[in-house]
Protein: Ribosomal RNA small subunit methyltransferase G
Amino acid sequence: MTDDVAPVLEQEPAAAADLFGDRIELARSFTGELARRGEELGLIGPLELPRLWTRHILNSALLAPLLEAEGRVADVGSGAGLPGLVLAIARPDVAFTLIEPMERRCDWLNAESERLGLENVTVLRGRAEDVADAVVVDQVTARAVSALSKLIPLTVPLVRSGGQLILMKGARVDEEIEKARKVILRKRLTDVEVLELGVGVVEETTRVFRATVD
Ligand SMILES: C[S@@+](CC[C@H](N)C(=O)[O-])C[C@H]1O[C@@H](n2cnc3c(N)ncnc32)[C@H](O)[C@@H]1O
Structure:
């Protein structure tokens, strides 16, 4: 447990207030708790503290404008709550299902949702492929779960016809798309595009694979 999280919180970038608006205090509270307990709970590595805001919190919040008003979103493999819990803070009008197989991580997600008073979060313990019958959403998000060739088959069954995949990817997204070409065709994804978000706001531009489910 890290007691002094002030240095982490002091690194809040100016863009945070714009992205979170009147929810900024909740975002600060979540960031502080993640800084305090994240390493001990195995949610973040020790090197992540100095870049918690830019690389993790803001990076996740950049997806907020992509979410449908009053929609339903499933975040697959939420882990520490990235991007799912951060988005639930930024978008109280959207109902989030955080899908995560590890019990300890589910405990953290439930405890933080409760502590922050987030009424738009349901935590579902399980693997995406095992809970697909219980979930239908308008959009699915995921960050750092697996390569697109595996992630697309895991996420498509959760989404209604006409809904979207919004999958956060790294610099090698084009390579991943190339490797997933057959899966993209087989799953009949349309409107496939790569969005570059946060240019000049976050350390590394956030690349998002977005596609519509048939
Ligand atoms: C590397 S962590 C990333 C966590 C978080 N999304 C982030 O960006 O920090 C991958 C997470 O995906 C979860 N996971 C792995 N396979 C999964 C599956 N088939 N369905 C749902 N979650 C899965 C793991 O338990 C883990 O919490």
Summary: The chain has a mean pLDDT of 95.
